[in-house]
Amino acid sequence: MTRKSWPRTRRKGFDSGEWSRPHRQRFAISCRIIYSILIAAWMTMQEGSGGECPASEKMPGCPCYNFEDGLFLECPGATEDSLKSALVNVISAAKSKEVVVQSLSVYELDRKVEELKATIFPLGSQIKHLQISHSGLREIDEDAFDRLGTRLQSLGIVSGQLQAVPQKALTPLTGLTSLDLEANQIRELPRHSFFGLSLIKLNLKGNEIAKISEDAFAGLEASLTDLDLSENKIRIFPMTSLRRVENLLSLKLAWNDVSHLPEDGYSRLDTLNYLDLSSNNFQVIPLNCFRCCPVLRTLSLSHNSANTVDKDAFISLIHLESIDLSHNKIIFLDVATFRANPKLRSIDLSHNHLHYIRGIFARLPELKELFLADNNILEIPAEAFLESISLSVLYLQQNAIRRIDSRGLATLGQLAQLHLSDNFIERVPRGFLDHCDNLSTLSLDGNRIRDLEAGTFSKSKQLRELRLQDNQITEVRRGVFAPLPTLLELHLQNNAITDMETGALKSLHNLQHINLQGNLLAVLGDVFQVSFDSTGSLVSIQLDNNGLGVLHNDSLRGQTSVRIMWLGHNRMTRLQAPLFRDLVVVERLYLTNNSISRIEDTAFQPMQALKFLELSMNRLSHVTGKTFSELHDLEELYLQDNVLRKLDPYALTALKRLRILDLANNYLGELHSTMFQESLSIRTLNLKNCTIRIMEAGVFKGLTNLYELNLEDNHLTALALDILDIPGLRILKISNNDFSEIDGESLNGMPSLQQLSMERSQIHRLSFDTFSNNKHLGKILLGNNQLHSLPGTLFSGLDSLREVKLDGNRFQEMPYEVFINTTTIEFLSLSNNVILHIDTSRLNGLRNLRELDLRGNHIISVSGFSDANFSRLISIDLSHNHLTALPMNFFVNANQLRKVELSGNKLRQLPGVALSARNMPNLGWLNLTGNPLTRVHEFSSEDKYPSLEEIHISRTNLTMVTGQDFEAFPGLLHLYVNNNLISRVSPSAFQSLRDLLTLDLSANDLELMPQARLKGLERLKLLNLTRNHLKTLEDFPEDLKALRVLDLSYNEIQSIGENTFNRLGNLLELYLDGNWLATVSSGCFASLKKLRVLDVSGNSLEYLPLNAFQPLETQIRSLRVEENPLRCGCEAQELWEWLRDHQKLIRGSRERDKEDGMGVSDGEGGLLRCQEPIELRGLVFLDLDPHSFCSEPLIVNLIIQDVRDSSVIILWQSRNHSGLHGYQVAYHDVDKDQEIHGKILEPTSRSIKLSNLSSNTQYLICIVGLGNWLPQADGKTPPGQFNSSVDDLVDPSSLEMLDSPTSRCTKVKTLEKARVIVVSGDGAAMSDSSGAKTVLTRRLGLIVGCCMGFVVFILLVSVLGYLKVKKQREAVKRDQQTVPPEYISYRHFSIQSGDAGHNNRVNNNQDAEYTSGYVNNEGHTTLTV
């Protein structure tokens, strides 16, 4: 049967005859599915009662569950025998009854089972749904499922190793409707792969399918509705295999290599509703390419590389409801792209590079969701969404929007969500939201809004959430938010608000959340003005990080619903009682970092529900008994970093539920017994750095729930430890006190102690019974004391001890005796002592040791490894010692050792045998930094390091890298040889490192890196060559195709060649900053299709290579160009325009640096500045008015020639500007200015002939350059900024007929029409025939003469031209100078496409009749009126 193919111009739907068959098919399918469901339900009811689960002891490893619809078995980690046994037990338990297993799920089947046999399913097995996942199955016997018969309805063999579809094994399963073979290793679907089955759903996702036979789905033509072929290797859309599948509804082909759809014109999928082609290789979406899927409703093309979409690409999809084109590289869409898709409900074009949206999404009456986030949209024009009346969700965040037309949303009465975050909007025009009656969410955060006009939100009566944070708003006036009675959330944080008028938020009766943090408010008046007979609705108020010194007593009046309030980081000095009088339900109050020195006794009295109070970093010196007396529900109280000197007795008595009390960094001096009462339930008490010298006996006696106590940095002595009688205490931190007199009974009052920190406590000795009463200790920190020895039984009985830190003491020898029986210790640190020698044989008691830290000692030798037992050791740190060599049996028995730290020693080469696989088979990480290495290891050594994945060899004496240095490291993934003296790299230095991912050669003395040195690194992802002395770059080899990050910063590179990076197609980040770059080839980045970050800052570029940046604009996310000596002249005008339109790329890079702490403020650096001319030096380039550095107009000269009675010829000269995408000629009769005629010309045109003019008439003629030009001083859009009409008549409101930087006008008057009278020699009028002959004779003579003159003229011009060219060539050879590259504009996407552009080009070619020597053979056009 022959199918129709739709012509380009056809936009109508199918006729009723064409649609009747698919409708009937879908109805039949629906009926069949409903019938199958009813039958299955009936059968389930009949079969579900057929058996019960056996006793659990009979089903080891296979739990069984009884449900109404049958038995469910789950068998994780099953073996062939255990699975068979479980099924036998199920059958036996049913006795004579027929038992049906509704579902059998087998997870991680024994990997030894590579073949599924029939014997695994005993006779009588009745299974409806079987799934075997994560197995090693490679084959399935032909009779494997014979015993399951027709009962089996769904089968899944997922994450196995099947090499092919087991067609013969599946043949008996005539009742099978669902087959899942996801994540196997199937490479091909041959003929009749599923013959004999009636599958409805087939999942082949995640295989390696590259070939599909034409008859692969034979037998499934009438049944198959859902097919998943995602994540395979399919290159050609499988139309020939699918066109006979009559009822296919859903097809998933995501994550394949499909680049186009079939174009044979007759193959069709008439029932397909859902098509997923995301993550394929589509670069172009051509004309009517989906005509093969006429009833498609959902289409996904996301995550491709599409940059071109034909305006009629979707013309056949008249039923399309949802389309996803996100994450592509689309710059331009024609206004007619979706005109044939009136049923569209959702369009996703986010993460593309659209600049303009004028009319593209207009007249889509059913459109509800439109996603345009993260494009480069510059404006919202009046007709952007015209008549798309159903639009309810609109995402426009992370674009470059500067201009908003007040009529942009005029027809969006159903709009509920509008997201405009992170743009460059400076003002919201009044009337912009007037027609959005249903708007509930409005996001304008992250823009540049300075002022809000009253009435901006006057019609948005349903607004519930308004986000205005991160703008530049300075004032909130009364009336701005007046018409928002339903607003719930108002976000104004991080602006520059200095004043809020009284009653500014008065009308927001339902407001629940107000955020004003990060502004400049010094005083807050009565902004809410809640009346005395009503209550506020606020639940949270955020006022922190302002400059608030004064809160009016009525500022919070009536706010009886507030539950959380932030007032921290302000300048408040006192808390008065009236301030919080109405906060009766507040639960959390933040007052940190103010200057509060006084709290009135009744200030917190109304806050009966308060649970959290933050008063840290204030100036409180005294807490009275009334300060917190009414806070009976308080659970957390933070008073740290005040100047507290006194807590009155029983000041905390009322806080019955207090769990956390923080009093750190105060001046309490003494702890009285009346400070903490018995009734307090404190679990965490922080008294760090409170200058405590005295603690009265029983001060903590009543704190029976105390879990953690911190007394660090005080002036306590060992006597204070005797007072600590806290039986339930688990964590005690008492470091930085004076416990030099500690004895065996000091810690007896804390028998439950689990963690003890006594660092920096002047301890020089410990008694053998110091911890005898602390049997539960698991962590002991004794670092930075004066210990030089430990009693041998110090840790005896501590069976839970896991971590011991003895670093920073005075041990000259390891305290071997204390570790004899400490078998539970896993982490041991003796760093920064003065140990000279280590005998590991005496540490055999540390059998469970996992990490050993011995850094910063004076160790010169280590021994005893043959008798040592460190079977669980993972990490050893011997850095910053005095080792010159390692013994050959170094940790020979530590088979689990993964990390060895040897930096800062005196090793001259890698200790080959000591670290080889013979001793350390699992060594994966090695650091040799800071050793005086002159070579990596002995070349003659046969020792290998197969498990080593990361090695650091920095700050050594290495001067070169040879081909033998890394041959012993075949498994190396990360190599760091930075900060050495390397000046040479041998050709084969890294060829043995086939798996290397990271290579760091930074901060060496390399002057050249030939491409041969980098060959073989096919998996390399990061190459760091920063801070060398590279002067030139050779083309990087193809072997680096996997490279993601390349850092060439801070070298001496002067130029970048055309092909330098051509083979780095997967590069994501490229750093060229801090070099001497003066020239960059225009195409040097063109092949970097995945580049996201480019940094060329800090170079010597006078002319930034715009032609090099433009191919990246659809993909790049951060561009750094600052600190170049930019020459700000006319040649930089287009650069200014491009950077302005793509300013978010530059903004993004600066913001990231600022977050990383590396950025500079906008006022001091981080911005591109002018170097020349001198009068502009130091000025920010993008802050300049382009006319200040280029006053030359676009149209340099305009000349009128050959004026006649009905025509004139116009010639013009234009300044070279690659942003130009065409000209518009416009003219009108001066006396009749109501009609303006015009036409659009190609950018190469330099002349035009205007015909059919009126004689003896004065005309005003203008030539207008078309392009996205800069705004004019009056703020109006310049003529020709956007795609203009090609009609002869021009809208007068869209064009001003006057001289401007982009247009030039002149006046001309046509000649009077001559009256010709022919007379004879005697004065009588001649007859018509004789007169005509005379005229023809004269004209013939004139034509012959003109031709001869023209030939002579051509000969003269040719001779003169030859002489002139010869002279110019000689002059060029003498005075050849570098000229800035001629740019190709990124705005070429705006050239009219589709029928309009085509007709324009055809007309131009047909009208070419005139050539002028003045314009030097440029393009020309004749315009006929």
TrEMBL record:
* Keyword Ribosomal protein in annotation: no
Map out region (Disordered) in residue numbers.
1394-1413
Q: Which SUPFAM superfamilies match?
A: Fibronectin type III, L domain-like
Compositionally biased spans, kind Polar residues: 1400-1413
Query: Which residues span the membrane?
Result: 1340-1363
Query: What CDD domains does this protein's entry cite?
Result: FN3
Task: Give yes or no: UniProt keyword Membrane.
Answer: yes
Which UniProt keyword terms apply here?
Answer: Disulfide bond, Leucine-rich repeat, Membrane, Repeat, Signal, Transmembrane, Transmembrane helix
Q: Which InterPro entries match?
A: Cys-rich_flank_reg_C (IPR000483), FN3_dom (IPR003961), FN3_sf (IPR036116), Ig-like_fold (IPR013783), Leu-rich_rpt (IPR001611), Leu-rich_rpt_typical-subtyp (IPR003591), LRR_dom_sf (IPR032675), SLRP (IPR050333)
Identify the residues that the record assigns to the Fibronectin type-III domain, covering every copy: 1194-1280
Superkingdom, taxonomy of origin: Eukaryota
Q: Name one GO cellular component term.
A: cell periphery
Task: Report what the protein is called.
Answer: Chaoptin
Source organism per UniProt = Fopius arisanus
